[in-house]
Design goal:
The structure holds 2 protein chains of 2 kinds. By secondary structure, chain A is mainly alpha-helical. Helix content of chain A is about 75%, strand content about 0%. Chain A contains 14 helices and 4 strands. Chain A has a two-stranded antiparallel ribbon. In chain A, β2 (about 165) and β3 form a beta hairpin. Chain B folds into 3 domains: about 5-230, P-loop containing nucleotide triphosphate hydrolases (Rossmann fold); about 245-335 and about 420-503, P-loop containing nucleotide triphosphate hydrolases (Rossmann fold, 3-Layer(aba) Sandwich); about 350-420, no CATH class. Chain B has 18 helices and 22 strands. In chain B, the strands form 5 sheets. A 6-stranded mixed beta sheet of chain B has the order 6-7-8-3-9-10, with helices on both faces. In chain B, strands 16-19-20-13-21-22 form a 6-stranded mixed beta sheet, sandwiched between helices. By secondary structure, chain B is of the alpha/beta class. The radius of gyration of chain B is 25 Å and the shape is globular. In chain B, α5 runs parallel beside α6 and α8 (about 230-240) packs across α18 (about 490-500). Classes of the chains: A mainly alpha, B alpha/beta. Chains A and B meet through α9 and α10 of A and α11 and β18 of B.
Chain lengths: ~325, ~500
């Protein structure tokens, strides 16, 4: 990061800020990768990359949904709780086979998202408050469903989602990758995506242009809930246990961080899917780098905080341009 | 008597625009002084100079004979100038009493807020102005009118010598307006000067004794209000001649040349809150109907009500004989009714999107297959309209916020045109755009009408209305007061209708 800002000195500030917001996250990822290649032992191993990607996959999936929500000037604090809800349902229905169990978890995630969307779009509650309700209530409900217990899972097919490979790449990483592409196409190439961005940019004008503002908002939150459920299923499979008390804890903050670091402004009107994916990778790399150099987790948190401040500052520079 | 507040030769410029050009204005104790002028005449700037929001570039402000210079609004308040704005500027969640004494709460011996005294004093103050309300209730639970009253009492209770009211009645119910007038009367008796800004003729003539007319940043008249007839006053505000208005009489309902055709759009007896009390407008295919009237007469609200952006309390909108679902912009658009909003920035463009995306926004479904946007179809349509409307862009992917006002307006027109509308409602389509673009937009309106579109044109510019419209509907206080067409489309007749004077 320091290298980037150093070369930037002396040029027009606003342009630098704009460039940084546009490409900063990619540059930072490359710089950090290079640093690790030279200074971190055992970094360039297949095993290490696997670990990093597998760890990042659920965050990435949640962050994709969060990027859409933030693009509409909203925020979804309930993603972690929705993950817990999905996780709590898996052991109940796994007896009927992995597919019904997954389907039910997904449906509940979708319903939770639609509930958020309904509160935001139709009732008119601010997103932060509306989704706070489910942040608190969702995890509570999950604990009730699971009887407050961690349940070990033994279904081989289901656990393969967390540990299995496809063509040498972990299945969860495949899913995160495919979903990233789907979301990028959704935002860039569909009426729904273009409407979403327009609504985030100027809601009054969009309403006057006859766009179905409420339906789009409900859709956006529904997608976010669905993606959170997917992340919950994958995280459960990887853990080989359903742990509603702990799964997805603080996930909302990780996801928001990734989105913001990836260059999506909190003021809406813009959704950067690739930036978000790189935001997730950057935050993952930062933690991994610090841990591998034997710095405690608390240091990693402070560095993450610094990166967030820089990202928000850069976004602010741009908006006051 | 000497003026309590006086400005002489005040000039105020904003980047190249002279908002106030040598304005002089004086108000005496106990006087109720009307300050009138059309939009952009400089009223708000003058008020802001008086209240310390702006500092004049030259000229002086005298309070009780002494030259003053307020560097902040609070200094003006301390010096005895209170202002009541159109919108209530109080804190909705705290109590009425706390609002009245906000910033000057009575204290107990220990320096804590003395609630008992505050509530008592507030109650006394309010009932002194004929307002009975529970002062412990949060302000936000009161009606807008009652909140306005609290703001008023707060303003006058600060030992003000001058009270400035900027369109205080715009959100009041008739009964509340009466209370306001009684407050003004009391201020008058107490020798407090009132500067009263309003567009409503009836109000001005009822409570004001002096009037100052501003036009294009200049003071064009000041003197006793009763020396002026309503027509003379309106003519002065708009800068028109008064000569033979009286001979022509007031409203006249003439025939219109499209009489044979069935109306495409019919709005019947629209009612919405205090803004629209009874508006009926019909437009035939190929006809341009103008909406005339002063600011606040309900022109914009009429357009918004027709397109469904303003909820209706009564009345219906028919398109091709079929009633539109009220309050649903999407339904209006599907029926072919589009509105170009007045505030291009806040309600028109999506600043973070490109010119292409701004144009196709409303027509996305037609340009997509199974929800996937077709770039080819987009390019074709964008290309057509960029050429037809001569939109100056480096390429369609340029951000719309980088364009000039005129080109942004054309982008918005293109947005509506590519949905193939039947009815276009244009609210101030040429405001804030340069002369060249203005002529182009006006020519385009003509062209569209010739192609069979029904157009509703709202404009503050008399020439634009008279030249552009086949028929004019004149609005006043949210109701239709006249309809002019053919040979009756003259300035004088419009003015007479606006002034609302019987022949």
């Amino acid at each position: 990061m320091t290298a980037v800002t150093a070369t930037a000195g002396g040029i027009d500030r606003a342009r630098v800020a704009r460039w940084l917001q546009e490409y900063g996250v990619y540059v930072a990822v490359v710089v950090l990768l290079l640093f690790n290649v030279f200074f971190t032992a055992n970094f360039l191993t297949l095993g290490n990359f696997r670990t990093q990607l597998v760890q990042a996959a659920p965050v990435c999936i949640v962050a994709l949904g969060m990027a859409l929500v933030i693009g509409t000037e909203g925020v979804d604090l309930s993603v972690g709780a929705v993950m817990a809800l999905a996780a709590s349902l898996i052991p109940l229905y796994l007896g009927a086979g992995p597919i019904p169990a997954i389907a039910i978890a997904l449906v509940v995630g979708l319903a939770a998202g639609m509930f958020n969307g309904f509160l935001v779009a139709h009732v008119g509650i601010q997103p932060i408050v509306a989704t706070l309700a489910l942040l608190v209530g969702g995890r509570g409900l999950a604990l009730v469903i699971a009887n407050g217990q961690l349940v070990q899972l033994h279904d081989k097919t289901f656990l393969a989602l967390g540990t299995g490979d496809l063509a040498g790449i972990p299945i969860s990483v495949w899913i995160a990758g495919v979903l990233s592409i789907v979301m990028a196409l959704l935002v860039g190439r569909t009426t729904f995506g273009r409407r979403l961005v327009a609504i985030g940019g100027n809601r009054t004008a969009s309403a006057l242009a006859g766009l179905p503002v409420k339906a789009v908002l409900v859709g956006v939150y529904a997608i976010c809930g669905l993606l959170a459920a997917v992340a919950g299923i994958l995280a459960t499979a990887r853990l080989s246990a359903s742990d509603p008390a702990d799964i997805g804890m603080l996930m909302e903050l990780s996801a928001i961080t990734a989105v913001v670091v990836g260059g999506t402004a909190l003021t809406g009107g813009r959704v950067r899917i690739l930036g978000t994916v790189f935001g997730v990778i950057l935050m993952q790399l930062v933690r991994a780098t610090l841990i591998k150099h034997n710095l405690p987790d608390s240091t990693a948190q402070m560095v993450q905080a610094a990166i967030i401040v820089v990202a928000v500052y850069v976004a602010r520079e741009r908006s006051t341009r | 008597m000497d003026p309590v507040l006086e400005v002489t030769d005040v000039v105020k410029e904003f980047v190249g625009v002279r908002a106030l050009d040598g304005v002089s204005f004086a108000v005496r104790p106990g006087e109720v002084h009307a300050l009138v002028g059309e939009n952009g005449a400089g009223k708000s700037t003058l008020i802001k100079v008086l209240t310390g929001v702006h500092r004049p570039d030259s000229g002086e402000v005298r309070l009780r004979g002494e030259v003053v210079s307020f560097d902040r609004p609070v200094r003006a308040q301390e010096a005895g100038i209170s202002t009541i704005y159109q919108e209530v500027n109080l804190v909705p969640l705290i109590s009425v009493a706390a609002n009245v004494f906000l910033g000057r709460e009575p204290r107990t011996r220990f320096g804590l807020v003395d609630w008992a005294r505050m509530n008592r004093d507030a109650k006394e103050l309010l009932s002194g102005y004929g307002i009975d309300t529970d002062v412990k209730r949060p302000l936000g639970t009161l009606s807008v009118g009652a909140q306005q009253m609290v703001a008023l009492v707060r303003a006058v209770s600060t030992d003000a010598d001058v009270v400035i009211m900027d369109e205080p009645t715009s959100s009041l119910e008739p009964r509340e307006v009466e209370t306001l007038f009684s407050v003004v009367e009391r201020l008058h008796e107490k020798g407090i000067a009132v500067v009263y800004v309003s567009h409503r003729m009836d109000e001005l003539y009822r409570i004001c004794d002096q009037v100052t007319v501003l036009r294009d940043g200049k003071m064009v008249h000041t003197g006793p209000l009763n020396d002026l007839s309503r027509i003379e006053l309106v003519a002065m505000m708009l800068g028109r001649s008064v000569s033979d208005i009286r001979e022509h009489g007031a409203t006249a309902f003439g025939e219109d040349h499209n009489a044979g055709k069935e109306p495409l759009l019919e709005a019947r007896n629209l009612v919405s809150g205090v803004r629209l009390s009874d508006v009926s407008v019909s437009i035939r295919p190929g006809e341009v109907v103008g909406l005339a009237g002063l600011l606040g007469s309900g022109r914009t609200e009429t357009a918004r009500a027709i397109v469904g952006a303003l909820p209706l309390d009564g009345g219906t909108v028919l398109v091709g004989g079929k009633a539109l679902k009220s309050g649903d912009v999407g339904a209006a658009m599907r029926a072919g009714v589009n509105m170009l909003a007045e505030d291009r920035k806040a309600e028109g463009i999506i600043p973070n999107l490109s010119v292409r995306e701004n144009i196709v926004l409303a027509a996305l479904p037609q340009l997509s297959r199974f929800g996937v946007v077709s770039r080819d179809k987009q390019d074709r349509i964008v290309d057509t309209f960029v050429k037809r409307l001569r939109i100056k862009v480096s390429n369609p992917d340029q951000l719309v916020s980088e364009l000039s006002g005129g080109n942004q307006q054309k982008v918005l027109l293109a947005r509506w045109l590519c949905t193939k509308p039947k009815v276009l409602l244009l609210d101030e389509p040429t405001r804030g755009i340069d002369v060249g673009a203005k002529a182009e937009v006006q020519a385009l309106i003509d062209e569209l009408a010739q192609e069979g579109l029904a157009v509703l044109l709202i404009s503050s510019e008399m020439e634009e209305l008279l030249d552009g419209a086949d028929r004019l509907v004149v609005l006043k206080d949210g109701a239709v007061v006249g309809e002019l067409s053919g040979d009756d489309l003259t300035q004088d007749k419009v003015l007479a209708a606006i002034a609302g004077e019987a022949p």
